[in-house]
Amino acid sequence: MTERVRVPIDLGERSYEVVVGERLLEHSADILSPIVAGRRVFVVTDEVVRARHLHRLAPVLGEVASGYETVLIPLGERTKSFAQLEVLLNRLLDLGMDRRSVLLALGGGVVGDVAGFAAALFMRGVDFVQVPTTLMSQVDSAVGGKNAINTRHGKNLIGTFHQPRAVLNDVTVLHSLPRRELVAGYGEIVKYGLIRGERVFSWLEQHGPAALALDEQAPQQALIEAVRMGCETKGDIVAADERDQGRRAIINLGHTFAHAIETEVGYGALLHGEAVAAGLAAAAALSAKLGYCETALVERLRRHLGAVGLPERIAALATQRNWDPAALMAHMAHDKKTVGGRVAFVLLRGVGEPFVDNTVPEAAVLTVLAEECSRHNADTRR
Amino acid sequence: MTERVRVPIDLGERSYEVVVGERLLEHSADILSPIVAGRRVFVVTDEVVRARHLHRLAPVLGEVASGYETVLIPLGERTKSFAQLEVLLNRLLDLGMDRRSVLLALGGGVVGDVAGFAAALFMRGVDFVQVPTTLMSQVDSAVGGKNAINTRHGKNLIGTFHQPRAVLNDVTVLHSLPRRELVAGYGEIVKYGLIRGERVFSWLEQHGPAALALDEQAPQQALIEAVRMGCETKGDIVAADERDQGRRAIINLGHTFAHAIETEVGYGALLHGEAVAAGLAAAAALSAKLGYCETALVERLRRHLGAVGLPERIAALATQRNWDPAALMAHMAHDKKTVGGRVAFVLLRGVGEPFVDNTVPEAAVLTVLAEECSRHNADTRR
């Protein structure tokens, strides 16, 4: 058996485990059997992931389930729509799926979102297994039970909470990711390091580059540990606030800025993790500007982002030459997390000390945005 | 203050009360204020219900909420579709609804289903209040948190569980119901009497006709008590099995037959409660045929159904002259509750002794169906 670690997600009767390891897909019989034995499995995936990875999982399903079907959904964010959700649910009904069947999401964030939503709604909820195939989804979206689709009013406005029965994080699948996508996923790991504390963040500074090296000949201990830490941190926060009514908001560290950045360039022009990295730097800079933390923390964060190839500030994002601070500011005011016109920021008093502040003066945000967007700062960076 | 009774629904942190009384709509400030104070309310209703009842609730919302909007959905079962759900959710987004807003369903089962589904999905769940305006929805669909839409594969196949924060059962609204619809709703009350036990069923035999008399000059104690009993019985069952994984199945007493009847005639040709009444008689007859209960129970049930103007057997359903037992049998095999080809029936060992049996021989079902469908039996009834 290859190396694997287990992260318990403690949600009472909805508790489950995230298993992280190498070559998990072909060695998942013991994990899947208690969930799928004697039942039909419906694998929701896209054509790229099917071609790359399904052949490793299929023999296990053939062995432990009473049969399985594969349902393809279209590639990309546009699949997160009402129309595609309806197509998927009707397809599952066509195939004779019933309330005892198990839905398995094999893919990245889009597949997990659409399949998780379908699992939540099919006959009011069927068992669901997440097999995320991107670093981003392994450490973030596959853990915690959130799913959603987009509307013309914005992203992820319509969805549910529906916890999986298990999450299989096979780091071997990450070898086939484009380098840029792998690095972007690491942006969420940096976020969890900042939330978690000094020991973890120092570990990332020391081992992050090695985790992303993906040497196929060497064991993947650093990568497994980085993924484990992300899942554990998210799991602890989710366990404390499953339905996002308070404490779970700290998961949005960097995301108020990131969503504004993504809205400005149009979704798809940047990878989410790249916007998150620039957003983390902006959130740290805002924290320092308001006197909550030392400037040294901001510099240290930028250094680590740069060391792994992530953008150290908004201006370093390649998509747009001239960022407009006022436009970003306007997007924040329309964020769905905004209640009663007050924009909520997750700020840092230090590494491991995130907190939510919805009393940040607009002027301070604009000043920080102007600095983060300035090409002068970007060009003169270390 | 007019007479009102409160039925607690015990679901841990999702607990709520069903309030039953006269003229509740105009006297609901104390019930609604803890839920809607300082928040915007979005009333989902249809044009008929709005014209009849909204003027009584509107002053209360104006007083206790920070504002309210009315959103109309089309009349009838066809509204329970993906397309209409999407239209409703986009309309709510257009109107600026946010995660702190409250959605209030004012109407019958269709309104409650679509509004409840929208409340479950809007930003992954907003607070929701049920104000059901039919007897059927007051005693059944508004309690327990189930919602759903239909697909081309059948009714209620896609939905969620999303408990309301409160249910307001104003019996005064029932005065405006067509007589046939009021009586049909009583079919579910008979079901709850059979589930509950001898004391309650005897009470219904004695007071059911008075409850349905709707004398506007007299207090509505009998009707309030009948509604209260239905809500309490359903609430107890839901509390024991919120997500329908076992015991909640007894709520389906009569419904395996009822769904087959409705499928055969096409939904809309009969009122659901009429099919339920005929289904209850068939379930009792099947129980007697299998030796689980006395024939006297079947006769007693038919007598009570007849006394309130409900069909005493399938043949008494007015829509179709010649019922085909084999066709009904075939519909049952496709019921969504069917798992692995075994049709589950809720049977009776006596009043108050329902149980689920998925080992009923097909021949016994066919024999009972033949008897229940026979016009000879119907024409020679007492």
What does this molecule look like?
- Two copies of one chain form a homodimer.
- Chain A is α/β, with parallel strands linked by helices and 382 residues long.
- Chain A folds into two domains: 4-176, Rossmann fold (3-Layer(aba) Sandwich); 179-219 and 246-379, Dehydroquinate synthase-like - alpha domain (Dehydroquinate synthase-like, alpha domain).
- In chain A, 47% of the residues lie in helices and 16% in strands.
- Chain A is built from 14 helices and eleven strands.
- Chain A has helices at 29-36, 47-64, 82-94, 109-121, 135-141, 179-196, 198-211, 221-240, 255-265, 272-289, 295-308, 325-333, 362-373, 375-379, and strands at residues 4-9, 16-21, 41-45, 68-72, 102-107, 127-132, 146-151, 154-161, 166-170, 345-348, 354-357.
- In chain A, the strands form three sheets. Chain A has a seven-stranded mixed β-sheet with strand order 1-2-9-6-5-3-4, with helices on both faces. A two-stranded antiparallel ribbon of chain A has the order 7-8. In chain A, strands 10-11 form a two-stranded antiparallel sheet.
- In chain A, helix 6 runs parallel beside helix 10.
- Chain A is globular, with a radius of gyration of 20 Å.
- The mean pLDDT of chain A is 93.
